Amino acid sequence: MREEELRQLMVGGLAGDARAHAALLRAIAPMLQAFYRRRCAGHIDIEDLVQDTLIAIHERRTSYDGRRPFTPWLYAIARYKMIDLFRRRRQTCNVAELDDILAEEGFEDVVGARLDVNRLLATLPAKQAEAIRQTKLEGHSVADHAGAAGLGESDVKVSVHRGLKALAARLTGGADGH
Amino acid sequence: MDTEALIDQLVQNLQPAPPRAADRRIALGLLAGGLVTLALIVLTVGVNPALDQVIRHYTFWVKWAYALSLGVLALGLVRTLGRPDGRLHRSLWLFALPVVALAAIGVVEMAQVPPSHWRAMWLGQTWMVCPWLILALSTPLFIGLLWSFRRMAPTRLGLAGAAAGLASGALGAMLYCLHCPEMSAIFVLTWYTLGILMAAGIGALLGPRLLRW
Fold first, then answer.
1. Is A22 on the interface with B (CB under 8 A)?
2. ipTM of the complex
3. Which of A12, A87, B161, B163 qualifies as a cystine partner to A20, CB 3.0-4.6 A?
4. pLDDT, tens digit (0-9, with 9 covering 90-100), for B114-159
5. Which residue in chain B is spatially nearest to A49 when comparing CA positions?
6. Are residues A141 and A110 located together in one domain of the fold?
């Protein structure tokens, strides 16, 4: 739903219109689900977190200022509730299990991230992909890579810049598609 | 419980929020806290018996305006940080204005007396208790603001706590003027500011614990 529609519903809810308020909460529940699903790994009950956030939004709705955009307010609350959950998890995390969790989750995350990056880089022209891989992932300097590949330094910099820009465009474009 | 049922339950008996509901709640929290602070002043340290003469002297109003302006600026921060997407902005430099103005008055006052008086001007009679009294008197105001925060959505809890501490320290100092017998700007600049900063520091430490939601 569009920002303006959500804002109207929010303002209506604040004025006491229960139907607008219900419509707002129904509209943002799937937005929150998508937001959390994209950011939380397993072991987290997404539906529980969504409901927690809906309650927080309802209880603290007067912190919304009708002259300001609604969506940043919404996602700032969503982010806070997510971080708060992570923080609470860590506090109640059993130290004896910590090694297992680190071994399991950390490893999976790293491998998963690596796979994602490789898949993304494969979509770029070879020169850009190689420039990003060498300078951003392997930790070589621009000069090293320029020397090894027989390119000029500014050429490498431009390749990295263009490649990252293309990736960023793909990632933000891809997020809307979900 | 499924989300649909939860939403139905939440919107039952929905009350309209008054316009500027957040500001009203801050005002109400401060009013309640301020009344307790006033009562504490009257019942413990007492109102300055010479108050009717003291308020004719410009220093009383300098002290009062210094504390009030810091309090108003800090309340601006409380409002901002009470929103989940609230960010500190460039207006932070405004805090320097009352401090610089008071320091300037202090310098002028010092220039008018022989240097042998400076130490007495700076320490007054009450420098050892003044910051602590301000800190103690800020507590009810801080509790009032904690209550206000229960309908706000702060996401940077340390900063929000510091802003609440700063506001309650400054407004506590403003009420403390009713008791305070000191009459020099450099006294206020040092010991009032110290008490207000202690309140802000304690607020920053307590924020992450007390403002969590």
1. yes
2. 0.88
3. A12
4. 999 999 999 999 999 999 999 999 999 999 999 999 999 999 999 9
5. B3
6. yes
